[in-house]
Amino acid sequence: MEFTDEVHWALVFGRDGILSAFEMSAGKKGSWKVEKDELCLNYGREGRRCYDVWVSGKNVQLRSEGRLPEDGVLQKPAPRKAQ
């Protein structure tokens, strides 16, 4: 599935734990997994971040103490050109 703001960025979650992140058409890879009821994302050098996930319909909010929440929607991944 894809978590996105539908304009600027998207996170694509692969079944194999691979995370593909796209921001303003630039892409990078990472990994994801669920630990202790939190969604944990790892972007390599940027480090690991874990979030509480709040869902209402297709609207999703990632919350982490000390950070502003990240709002977006959950949808099927959009087609993208290879980077």
SSE layout and pairings?
Elements lengths: L1 E3 L4 E5 L4 E6 L2 E10 L2 E5 L5 E9 L2 E5 L6 E6 L8
Antiparallel strand pairs: 1-2, 1-8, 2-3, 3-4, 4-5, 5-6, 6-7, 7-8
Describe this structure in words.
By secondary structure, the chain is mostly beta strands. Helix content is 0%, strand content 59%. It has no helices and eight strands. The chain has strands spanning 2-4, 9-13, 18-23, 26-35, 38-42, 48-56, 59-63, 70-75. An eight-stranded antiparallel barrel has the order 1-2-3-4-5-6-7-8. The protein is globular, with a radius of gyration of 12 Å. It starts with a strand and ends in an 8-residue tail after the last strand.
Q: What fraction of the residues are assigned to beta strands by DSSP? A: over 45%
CATH class category name: Mainly Beta
Order of helices and strands: EEEEEEEE
Largest sheet: 8 strands, antiparallel, barrel
Overall CATH architecture: Beta Barrel
Taken together, the total number of domains comes to 1
